[in-house]
Every structure is written in C-alpha cells, then in structure tokens.
Automatic annotation (TrEMBL):
<comment type="similarity">
    <text>Belongs to the metallo-beta-lactamase superfamily. RNA-metabolizing metallo-beta-lactamase-like family. CPSF2/YSH1 subfamily.</text>
</comment>
<dbReference type="InterPro" id="IPR022712">
    <property type="entry name" value="Beta_Casp"/>
</dbReference>
<dbReference type="Pfam" id="PF10996">
    <property type="entry name" value="Beta-Casp"/>
</dbReference>
<protein>
    <recommendedName>
        <fullName>Cleavage and polyadenylation specificity factor subunit 2</fullName>
    </recommendedName>
</protein>
<feature type="domain" description="Beta-Casp">
    <location>
        <begin position="243"/>
        <end position="365"/>
    </location>
</feature>
<keyword id="KW-0507">mRNA processing</keyword>
<dbReference type="GO" id="GO:0005847">
    <property type="term" value="C:mRNA cleavage and polyadenylation specificity factor complex"/>
</dbReference>
<dbReference type="InterPro" id="IPR036866">
    <property type="entry name" value="RibonucZ/Hydroxyglut_hydro"/>
</dbReference>
<feature type="region of interest" description="Disordered">
    <location>
        <begin position="424"/>
        <end position="446"/>
    </location>
</feature>
<dbReference type="GO" id="GO:0003723">
    <property type="term" value="F:RNA binding"/>
</dbReference>
<keyword id="KW-0694">RNA-binding</keyword>
<feature type="region of interest" description="Disordered">
    <location>
        <begin position="502"/>
        <end position="524"/>
    </location>
</feature>
<dbReference type="InterPro" id="IPR001279">
    <property type="entry name" value="Metallo-B-lactamas"/>
</dbReference>
<dbReference type="Pfam" id="PF07521">
    <property type="entry name" value="RMMBL"/>
</dbReference>
<dbReference type="InterPro" id="IPR035639">
    <property type="entry name" value="CPSF2_MBL"/>
</dbReference>
<keyword id="KW-0539">Nucleus</keyword>
<dbReference type="GO" id="GO:0006398">
    <property type="term" value="P:mRNA 3'-end processing by stem-loop binding and cleavage"/>
</dbReference>
C-alpha cells in the first residue's frame, strides 16, 4: 500500500494561471510546478514557505512564469534545496524566461530585490534534464519511485509527468493540447489507462478551440488590415513559449505573399529565443523534423523577423510594422511602454494571442475605454539621498573587499600548509647523507650546479626549506578523456554580461576607490567599471497615467490548450480511479466535477480548495488523501502433490485457492529463499472469476 496525499498551495479555483502543488508519496515530498506572476507578489507564496522543508524534489511542466517563475525566490530566500527535473527545452527556454522577467521588472523598479540573476543561475544549476518517455528511478529516500515526462503539446518541452510506485501510477497533466500545431505535436495524455490518480486542470473548459487554419487566417487578416491603413500592430506575447507558434505563422505568411513590412520581436533576450529553438527540432512536431532531415531550412531561422532589444532599435524600423513585445499581461515590459504610445492612435491595432488574465492591464483594455497605467520613471539621486547612497556604497565596497581579502588569505595559508606537508613527505623518503648506502658529498664540478642558490636555514617544520624563492602554486588543469576541461565562463557572450550589468547600480565618483573585488572574471569587471562610469545613482519614481484606447482591439486564440470538449474526451479515455481538479475557476471546476461523477464509472472527482477556513488557518490548501487499499495475500502451494509436467512441488499454485478467493489479477511473484513455498500477490475485484494455475517452470497449466 502506497500512501498518497495531495496539498494544493495555490492555483486551485482561481483565475490565476500560476500553480504550485505538493504531492507526497509515502515519505517523499514532490513539488509539482513552482509558478509566479510577473508582479512577483510575495503574499502568493506564503503557503509554499510553510511546506518548503517537506520538498524533496521538484517537477516542472512548462517553461513559463506560471509554472517556474518562483524558483529563484524559493531557492534564494525560502531555502528550497531540492533537485529540479525538467526536459532540455524547459531548461533552455526557462533560462530565457527568467532572465527576461528579471530585466523587465528591474526596468520598472530599480529597487527590486526579491531575487537576482545569481539566484537564477543557482536554479539552473539544480536542473536535471530528461527526455520524453525517459523513465528515471529515484535513489535514496525515493527508492522505488519512477518519474517519466511525456509530451504535453502546449509549449516546447512541456511535459505531463508520470509518478509511479509499485502498482500505483499518478499523472500530473495541466495545460496540455490535444491538437497538433505547426511547431508542436499533440499530447499523449489519452494513451494512459486507469491510473491511480490524475491531477489535471479545467481552466479552458468553457472555451472552444478554433481550427488551426481558421485561427491562422484570422490572425493574418487582422494584421494586414491594420498595416494597409498605415498603422502599427502590437502583439503582447511571452518571451520563449507560444511566441514560437506566432512567429512561425507570420514568417511563413510573409514568405508566401512576399510582404515587406518589418516584423519585430522585442524583449531583452530576443536574440536567444529563435537560436535556442533552432537546436531543439527533435522536440517539435514530426513534420518539422522530417522537413529538416530532407534538406529544408530550419523553420526557426526567421527571415522576416527583426530581433530587437530596446525601443531605440525599434524606432529605426520603418512603419507600418508588426511588433511582438513582452509581456502578455501588459503590467511590465516593453509591451506596456508601447501601449501608452500606440493606444491613443486609431490607425494602430492591438491583437491579443493569449487570453488576458483577470486583474491585469490586458484584461481591462477595450475600445473606447480609459485604462489606468502605473508608470515608472528613473531619476538621478540628489542631495541627502545621494550622500546616503554614497556612504552605503562605500561601506559595501569596503566590506566586500575585506571579506574577499580574508578569503584569499585563508586560501593561500591553506595552500602553503599543504605544500609544506608535501615537501616534508618528499624529504622523509630520501636517505640522509651519513646513512649507510647514501651517496657521498658532491664533487667540486657538480657542486655549483647542485648547491647554487640553495640554503639550509630555519627551524621546526621550516627546517627542510631548500630553495630561496617566493611561494607560488602552479595552476592545475583538469583533464578528461578528451583533453583539458573547458571553462564555460571564459566563453560567455559579452552581450549577455552587459545585459546583466546594465541593471546593476553604479557607484558614485566619490566612492570609486581602487578596491580589487577579486572575482576572477576580468571581462565582467571591465564591463562593470564602464557601466559604473557611465551611469549615476538612480531611483524609481512611480506615478499613474490614464490612456484612452482608440486603437482596434482583437483577440485570436493562440493559447494552445485543450478546450472543454477535448478535456472531457481525454477523461473518458483515461478513466482514472481518482481525479483531482486544479488550475481552474470555481465555475469550470464544479462543471467538470459534475460531468465526471455522472459519466465516468468508478471515478472519484475531488475539488480541493486553498481558501482560508478560519483566522488560525495557515493558508495551505486542504490535504487530499488518495491512498488506494489493494487487497493482497500470500498464497502457499501445497507440497503434497507435484506438477504433472515438471514434477516440481514448489512452483505451482492450486486452482482451488483462486476459486475460493476469487483472485484474477497478478501483481507480484517472489520466491523466498530457503523455502519450498511460492508466494503470489493477487487483487480481488468485485467479480469472483477463476483462472487455472500456471506452472512457470513447465510453462503449462495445472491439470486440476
């Protein structure tokens, strides 16, 4: 019997897309996703902070903020210390998503300090990459648990996770797509049969996904209509997820019609999005892989897409143009800046390719309405604020220099003591000159060569010092079967380093002392020095601005998730023994629960809630116990009558045992050492059907 419990932390019966759940299999805590919003509200993560010590491993399903955005804060502040299992595209695209989200947030708020890029790097170091259908057996405390990712079809590398132990199988499937698209294949959820537990969502239950051809034509018509009247088109999108499908459709349409209007992908990591996708064709649809194998160009080598990193580069492109900018919520990023500029003009157009989340700026935009936006502006520090900042920076630099000097001194002392110990061990192996068998004193000709520059001074452990030279340590290069190991830091892209350091606070001119930080990366130090010299200390000033929406606003469904009909069909095919409904609104969750209870036999549908039930509640969702009791028994064969085929007394199980007990399903069969009995575990269902005894040695049935 496997003890299974499920605790929703957030992402149940809510309009929020971010989700995080705790699944406990016996004594192992598995964190299913760790999402956040682009507002980075710490209050949302309070339930996660209360159970962070129970987490032994993390499974990430999709490379977006809604499924992995809280990992840097969880590891940097909450103290999460667990391996994170992902697929290769989730690792590559997740890096782009987290970097871009941090830079977009710090662009609007220089005082943002919930996590840093160092925390993002710390998260990436804990990632363990798996392939689709790769079954991984956990070790240590998780012995006996198998985890396997399967294709979800929503984002590149997006996974449906299978967690299995003994006879129980748990499927975690949120945000999957039942249809194949230009970039991705469809999900494989409907290939599972009768799992013990299925954890799935109902967010898109009230939607109807359009046909792919109709969807593409609608997007093209809306864009071309705006371009023909001389306006620009703004498409809010993510940084490395569904944007690949949109870019592929637009680029192929531009090639087919030979259009000249520029297309721009605008975010700080735009250069890396198509480059990363070009190296992951095996994770895409079969058609893309086959076309590339027969010599066709890489589908992510977009010939009509300009990769833009800031607004100055965007202004150099001629109008009219199509702009894909982050983020989908329009709360932060370049999309919000372009909205304030383009919305008041009636010739421009705004096309949403993902459903706006309630509570965001995108959800409040309608033609002819007034939208209130939070505007952030960076201004230089002056007066007392500047003096306080200079003093703070001066103290910080001095403290860091002292700490670094102390670390260097301790490391040098440790290396010196190790070297002295090596010298002493070498001297102990040499015989003294007056010992029997030792060589005599050197000759006059050899003396200058052997004794030149040597000395014999010192006492104690330094008495064996021989050569008068300064202490030094040769750098030891690490080697493997291919040669010297390459340091990745030496080949980092300078643009990536500049993008990081562009957001760092610069020290004032009075605090520019000659302090060696000693971080071992001269390139980063040089770039940091240039950034500090070019920028003055700044602060962020927030204000509100009202925008009158006069541009056209349209919505084209590029969400890439299963609609209500597909969700119900998948549940009919899978037929789970128990179903937990998460990641949906209260209305869609209730509707799907009622459908399952009335349609699917022997399936218990549970609708958990994370709403606080009292003032003493910690905010953690109610725990769902999903343990399934399997009736098993050890049947011992009688040694009095041997098998007529193999004459074996200890490998046969009589049919009368099964007929009396009604066992039908074979689970395990283990023969205990030093025993003449055969033990077998069986399950007793509602029907009492019989099976003949099977002799495994003679490969024949028992002739009862």
């Amino acid at each position: 019997m496997v003890a299974i419990s499920f605790t929703p932390l957030y992402g149940v019966q809510s309009t929020e897309r971010s989700c995080c759940y705790l699944l406990e299999v016996d004594d192992i805590g598995i964190l299913l996703d760790c999402g956040w919003t682009d507002d980075f509200d710490v209050a949302l993560l309070e339930p996660l902070a209360k159970v962070i010590d129970k987490v032994d491993l993390v499974l990430i399903s999709h490379p977006d903020l809604a499924h992995m955005g809280a990992l840097p804060y969880a590891m940097g502040t909450l103290g999460l210390k667990a391996p994170v299992y992902v697929t290769l595209p989730v690792y590559r695209m997740g890096e782009i998503v987290l970097y871009e989200a941090y830079q977009a947030r710090t662009k609007d708020d220089l005082e943002f300090n919930l996590f840093t890029l160092d925390h993002v790097d710390q998260v990436l170091e804990t990632f363990i990459q798996l392939k689709f259908s790769q079954k991984l057996k956990l070790s240590g405390e998780g012995e006996g648990i198998y985890i396997t990712p399967h294709a979800a079809g929503h984002l590149i590398g997006g996974s449906i996770w299978s967690i299995a132990k003994e006879t129980d199988e748990i499927i975690y499937a949120v945000d999957y797509n039942h249809r194949a698209e230009h970039v991705l294949s469809k999900t494989v959820l409907d290939t599972f049969t009768r799992p013990t537990l299925l954890i799935t969502g109902s967010m898109s239950l009230d939607k109807q996904q359009p046909k792919m051809r109709d969807r593409d034509e609608q997007l093209k018509d809306e864009i071309v209509h705006v371009l023909r009247r001389g306006g620009d088109v703004l498409i809010p999108c993510d940084s490395a997820g569904r944007v690949l499908e949109v870019l592929h459709v637009l680029d192929q349409y531009w090639i087919k019609l030979k259009l000249k209007d520029p297309i721009a992908l605008l975010h700080t990591m735009s250069f890396y999005t198509p480059k990363a996708a070009q190296a992951m064709l095996e994770w895409c649809s079969e058609r893309i892989s086959k076309n590339f194998d027969i010599g066709k160009p890489n589908p992510f080598n977009f010939t009509h897409v300009n990769l833009i990193h800031n607004l100055d580069e965007l202004d150099r492109l001629p109008s009219p143009k199509v702009i894909l900018a982050t983020s989908t919520s329009l709360n932060h990023g370049f999309g919000k800046d372009l909205l304030m500029k383009m919305a008041p003009l009636s010739k421009n157009g705004l096309v949403f390719v993902s459903t706006p989340v309630p509570g965001t700026v995108a959800a409040t935009i309608h033609p002819g309405t007034i939208v209130k936006l939070k505007v952030s502006r960076n201004v230089p520090l002056e007066g007392a604020e500047l003096l306080a900042y200079e003093a703070k920076e001066r103290r910080r630099l001095i403290d860091e220099a002292e700490l670094k000097a102390k670390e260097i001194e301790e490391a040098a002392l440790e290396d010196m003591m190790m070297t002295i110990a090596e010298y002493e061990s070498d001297d102990e192996g040499q015989p003294p000159t007056n010992a029997p068998g030792a060589q005599g004193p050197p000759t006059d000709k050899a003396a200058p060569m052997q004794l030149r520059g040597s000395f014999k001074v010192g006492f104690g452990q330094f008495a064996t010092a021989k050569f008068p030279m300064f202490f030094t340590m040769d750098t030891k290069c690490e080697w493997d079967e291919y040669g010297e190991i390459i340091r990745v830091d030496e080949f980092k892209d300078v643009h990536q380093a500049k993008a990081r350091l562009r957001k760092a606070k610069a020290a004032s001119s009075s605090s520019k002392e000659d302090v060696d930080m000693g971080n071992g990366d001269d390139e980063d130090d040089d770039v940091n020095g240039l950034a500090a010299a070019d920028r003055r200390p700044m602060k962020t000033v927030h204000s509100s601005q009202h925008i009158f929406i006069q541009c056209t606003v349209q919505f084209v469904d590029f969400d890439g998730v299963a609609d209500g009909r597909a969700i119900k069909n998948c549940l009919d095919n899978v037929k789970p023994r128990k179903l937990i409904l998460v990641h949906g609104t209260p209305e869609t969750t209730t509707e799907l629960q009622e459908y399952v209870q009335t349609t699917i036999e022997q399936c218990e549908a549970v609708r958990p809630s994370h709403t606080k039930r009292s003032s003493h509640d910690d905010g953690v969702g109610e725990c769902c116990r999903c343990t399934r009791h399997t009736r098993t028994s050890a049947l011992i064969s009688s040694p009095t009558r041997p098998c007529t085929s193999c004459r074996s007394r200890n490998r046969c199980i009589r049919r009368r045992f099964f007929k009396r007990l009604g066992a039908t399903t074979w689970h395990t069969s283990t023969r205990q050492p030093n025993s003449t009995a055969q033990h077998a575990s069986w399950t007793w269902p509602s029907k009492n059907t019989t099976r003949p005894c099977y002799c495994r040695k003679a490969r024949s049935r028992w002739p009862c």
